[in-house]
Amino acid sequence: MSTSGEIFGAPCWVSLATRDLASAEAFYGAALGWTFRPTRLGEEFRVALQGGVPVAGIGAVAPRLGIPMAWTPYFAVEDADVTAARIRERGATTAVGPLAFATGRAALAADREGAAFGYWEGEVVSQWTSAEDGAAWAELRSRDPFAAAVFYGEVLDWATGRPGSLDVAYEHDHVVVRRGTMTVARISGGAVGGDPDPRLRPRWCVHFAVPDLDEAAERAVRAGGSPASPVEQTPTDRRMVLRDKAGALFTITEVRDPGA
After folding, report:
1. How many folded domains does the chain comprise?
2. Which CATH number is 189's domain given?
C-alpha cells in the first residue's frame, strides 16, 4: 500500500460514476471479464478486478453528487486543499469536494477546456500501470496539448525536479508523461471545444487493455453497450470507443506485437 504523497502527480486510479451499481457490475463483468469486491468507501462503491488485480472503481454516486455518468482518472496529490487552490488560481474549477472517505480525500475538477479529472489524497491501492503493457491508462484529448501540459504540470507538480516528480516530453505530436521509463499518461491534440459529439470534446479518455478487441466489442454489445467509434489502428494497437448501458464512454485497446 502506498500513499498519494509517495507517487504524487501520477494517475493512481480510474472510477466510474454511475446510477446503478448492479447494472454496471453486470455490464463490465460480461464485457471485460471483471469481478468485483466491496471497498472501505461504503456500500455505494466496488473495486473491479481483472485476474485478481484491482483495475478500477465503480461508485453509484452520480445522482447524489449531481455529476454525469462517466469514467474519470484520479491523480495522486500530497494535499487536496493545495491542489484545489492551484486549480482555482489557473481559471479551472473543482466541482465536487474535497470529500473525506475512509482512506483519504477525493475531489472532481474540470480543467480550463472542460475536461473532467479527479484528484486523491490518501492511500493508493497500486501505482498506475504503464500505457505499454498495463491493464488501464488515461489519455487527455485537448485542443492545445502544450497548454494542457503546462496546466497539469503546475497543478500536479510535474517536471519540477523534485525526487519522484514525473517527466514530461513532447514526442510525435503527443505529450508523454513518465515516471522513469514508465508512461503514466498521454496528452493528444485534435479535440474540438463545444462539439456536440462528446467523443470529440476535450476529455480524459480511459483505456482498458483487452487481448482481442473484436471479441471484447462483441461481448460489450451483447451486454447492452454500443459502439461509439469505428476501430482505429495505429502501428502499436487497435482501439475502439464504446458506450456502456448507461452511456458512459470508455475505450478498449488491443496492444499489437511490433514484431508480429
Report:
1. 1
2. 3.10.180.10
Cell 472542460, residue located: 114
Three-state DSSP class for residue 147: helix
Whether the model clears a pTM of 0.85, i.e. scores above it, the answer is yes
- Is 260 contained in some domain? no
Q: What is the mean pLDDT of each run of 10 residues along the chain (260 residues)?
A: 74 91 96 92 87 89 80 94 97 90 90 95 66 73 93 94 88 85 87 72 92 96 96 88 95 73
**Radius of gyration, alpha carbons of the chain:** 17
Give Cβ neighbours of residue 110 (< 8 Å, ≥ 6 apart).
92, 93, 95, 116, 117
Is residue 89 within 8 A of residue 128, CB to CB? The reply is no
Q: Is 159 left (phi over 0), alpha (psi -120 to 50) or beta?
A: left
In terms of residue numbers, what domain contains 111?
2-255
Q: Is the dihedral of CA 158, 132, 115, 80 positive or negative?
A: negative
